[in-house]
Prior knowledge:
The complex is a heterodimer of chains A (469) and B (593).
Chain A: E1 3-6, H1 9-30, H2 32-43, H3 45-63, E2 67-70, E3 82-83, H4 84-88, H5 90-93, E4 112-115, E5 121-124, H6 138-176, H7 180-188, H8 197-218, H9 233-269, H10 271-286, H11 289-306, H12 314-332, H13 335-348, H14 352-359, H15 364-401, H16 412-422, H17 431-458, H18 460-468
Antiparallel strand pairs in A: 1-2, 2-3, 4-5
Helix pairs in contact in A: 1-2, 2-17, 3-8, 3-9, 3-17, 6-7, 6-8, 9-10, 9-12, 9-13, 9-15, 9-17, 11-12, 13-15, 14-15, 15-16, 15-17, 16-17
Chain B: E1 4-13, E2 16-26, E3 31-35, H1 42-49, E4 57-66, E5 69-70, H2 76-85, E6 87-90, H3 94-97, H4 104-110, H5 118-131, H6 137-140, H7 150-163, E7 168-172, H8 180-197, E8 200-205, H9 208-214, E9 217-222, E10 225-231, H10 244-252, E11 300-304, E12 307-310, E13 338-352, E14 359-373, E15 377-381, H11 388-395, E16 403-408, E17 411-412, H12 418-421, E18 428-431, H13 445-456, H14 464-474, H15 491-503, E19 509-513, H16 521-538, E20 541-546, H17 549-555, E21 558-563, E22 566-572, H18 573-578, H19 583-590
Parallel strand pairs in B: 3-8, 3-9, 6-7, 7-8, 15-20, 15-21, 18-19, 19-20
Antiparallel strand pairs in B: 1-2, 1-4, 4-5, 9-10, 10-12, 11-12, 13-14, 13-16, 16-17, 21-22
Helix pairs in contact in B: 4-7, 5-7, 7-8, 13-15, 14-15, 15-16
Amino acid sequence: xxxxxxxxxxxxxxxxxxxICGGFAWHIARTPALRASWRKVLARPMGMxxxxxxxxxxxxxxxxxxxxxxxxxNGQLDVEVKSLLDRALVxxxxxxxxxxxxxxxxxxxxxxxxxxxxxSTVRETPRLxxxxxxxxxxxxxxxxxxMARTLKGLALGLAASLLFAVLLAVPLKRLWRCGxxxxxxxxxxxxxxxxxxxxxxxxVSMLLLTCGAVASLAGGYxxxxxxxxxxDVLYQSLKSIRTGLVIGxxxxxxxxxxxxxxxxxxxxxxGWVDDFIQYVYTTLNSIPWVLLVAAAVLIxxxxxxxxxxxxSSVAExxxxxxxxxxxIIGLTGWTGLxxxxxxxxxxxxxxxxxxxxxxxGVSGPRILARHILPNVQHLILITVVMDFSGLVLAxxxxxxxxxxxxxxxxxxxxxxxxxRMELAREPIVWWPLLAAFSFMFxxxxxxxxxxxxxxxxxxxxxxxxxxxx
Amino acid sequence: xxxxxVENLGxxxxxxxxxxxxxxxxxxxxxxALLGESGSGKSMTALAxxxxxxxxxxxxxGEIRFDGQLLGELPESKMRSLRGRGMAMIFQEPQTSLNPVxxxxxxxxxxxxxxxxxxxxxxxxxxxxxxxxxxxPAARLHSYPFxxxxxxxxxxxxxxxxxxxxxLLIADEPTTALDVTLQAQILQLxxxxxxxxxxxxxxxxxxxxxxxxxxxRVGIMYAGQLIEQLPVxxxxxxxxxxxxxxxxxxxxxxxxxxxxxxLAAIPGRVPPLDRAFAGCRFAERCPHAFGPxxxxxxxxxxxxxxxxxxCHLAEHPAAVRGDESAQPLEMPRPGxxxxxxxxxxxxxxxxxxxxxxxxxxxxAVDGISFELRMGETLALVGESGCGKTxxxxxxxxxxxxxxxxxxxxxQQVAGLSERRFKPYRRLAQIVFQDPYSSLNPRxxxxxxxxxxxxxxxxxxxxxxxxxxxxxxxxxxLDPDAVTRYPxxxxxxxxxxxxxxxxxxxxxxxxxxxxxxxxxDVSVQAQILNLLADLQREEGLAMLFITHNLAAxxxxxxxxxxxxxxxxxxxxxxxxxxxxxxxxxxxSLLASVV
Lengths: 469, 593
């Protein structure tokens, strides 16, 4: 079966970001000071654990960013754009129910009128087409089957964890110049100066155990239930990861240049430059944010609808809207960071080391690059990560108002938006909300914890305090 | 019985023991000074008395007895009523110790004992303000802290401390943040009030002069321990001090009587306090250390009535190696070539006034003139706000000027654009007061030292590494400092880095803006010695900006006294210190303690 790769706009930008990160990593490896700081990050258990969790999210997101279209038997291209993740999750997509069903359920959520073979009609909750369909007598077998599958999954997860430890020990054996067994022991009991291998092992094991159990259960059930049209909620949550990551990272790409550039210029040069930049962001800030975003999104939407013909698939159209959303949020969201950086720069420019540099005749741009920018780095880093969680949440708010991502696109925001109606149903439908919440929570928490550790490692002042205490 | 008795007090913060086995007592009406450099544990001791230790700190042992009452056993509610009523504290920083949104009347009334009517409160506050020397106290009641000067704020703080009628007053560096003339007034005030009210006074200070001037008895602290206690003699002052550290400390203070001598510097630095000590804490820096000093901790030895010392030498006087007499300091002879000529230099700022569009001119520097020759040191002396730092920045072209000429090496540079000034930048460099804000924390020392060379194109790019190594050696730092960051260095070492940075472009004029006022006495001596050596070796002209007249006599050839933007007196150091002509110079000299 042949296929044709499809590169969506956001795909291109995401892979560009990966390239930038790769280049940055190469730069770190070549700079001893940076390498030492990142070593400090990895030496902290919290840093290693949150990085492992983030890594899983990023992997899922990247797998969902390789898109293609299948060539059908008749030689035509399939209209549907799929991603590598879709391919891996085929079992989910192929097993839709008719409507709501609770997590791990064997019967539908609500009663339906069912016609018996003998011609009589009764109202009952019908068996699901896929969830627990393999059970002869759900009443009796359900608990045992769920337990068995969970245990099997956990066992698989454990085996995978052990395999992971072994795979980790093989290259490290060479690095540490010791035996294989010694390497395994050292993974568990790190020596002075080692990074937090134990935390990595533990976190990855936990993730593998969870994944094992979930995957094993998913073979026969809908682990997080199904939504209104019978789609698997776990599948939706996994697909939403990419949307969250795109909004969280690409928006920052738009925000940062404006915020850093304008903030530093205003703070350092003062005078009319400062007046002008302040005027711009005060004006921008005085317009209600949601209104501004809504107006911009509606304009983009009109534009998309008028040029419907230029999009070859639904996915492409949804993608352009996602990108537009990132740009719009970015262009309206730089003011906070710019203001913060302006204030900090105002303070820093009066410090003696800046005066000393001026006494050497160092030029303005160079002072900004060497003396001011490195000293506001931690502010940028914190703001970026705080904004990351804020942006994931903003997506939910905007989807709620109806100006967020395209309704056909999977996103936690859209899931939460749907929960509005679901929470009012009787019996209550709580699982899509719970699923969206859990995934968002895990991502945002891991990002925040990671930012904390990075902040500690990179701020020389905290490093000095840590050294003394 | 004594008012306060401290027995074997210890304080712990995590693994660090900032105070270890400190014992002293203060009687009613007596003034006891705890003298020590930063990190010696003197402020921690005071905070422990009030049970106000910072987060993570706890009292690790010992007894504090106030008026016969054991403080360790008091519940917090009793302790709270003891603070203010029994013991009160005056803090160092008047700017941050008063609440900016409360009137001073309210803040003092807060500290008054309860149960007073409004009228009584008002009268009590007015009386207190009068007592601490605030003019027209009734009118000042409703002033906010920003309407007061630094000295007035310190007086208000004293009034606040007195409001609870305490029997023990703890003053933590009460005058360090103030100008010299104010310092003398405030110290007088505290001393008078303590005597009038029969209060015990615990004075915490790093300044030998202040301790000697104020205290009945002095305790010297080093590395968390009290190492010597002695009464202050009316004539000899502290001259009978025995401990090698105390003696070194006294020899390290610059002063006119030491002109032409090298200051005694104490090598090394205070040991870290997170480990146990086998011997004497001062042993590795002590010139007289012998056998038992590194193996056994010295106990107290009594030398005279009230004079005790913690030193093995007290029992083995034979081990004292002949008192190293002061080495002479060669003062460089000034050359004939003028490096800097300043004529009628003026700098003024525009300040907005309360009215709309209202502006007024502030003349920060108001027409000063002087010249400076090769190898010569001119001290620019004045109190804060007199315009001395602004003048320095104007000379370096870092602040726009409103009039006058500045000639660097014969070239008129005042008012030049940034681009046209650049060729002359390497002629003059500056060393700042605060070694913590003068080095970029994100740059390595090597990069810091190379920045100026690269910007001004001094030397070939590939030889700069060698120049940096040579510079580090010249200022007495290890060559491996190149790859380290500023936070890894102590204050004194950072100041050496700052000096090396200035020297990197081989300037002819070095402006030192209070280069030692943020440093401890023993470190100050190291830096002043270094500057004197460098000047002799390089033939530098130095403009030494300071508020400290004592440092002047030691270093400078000539002195310019500055007041409110003008130079009021200029002349040879000896003449000015011996026969000051201007009343302002006279008052400055009179207030040196």
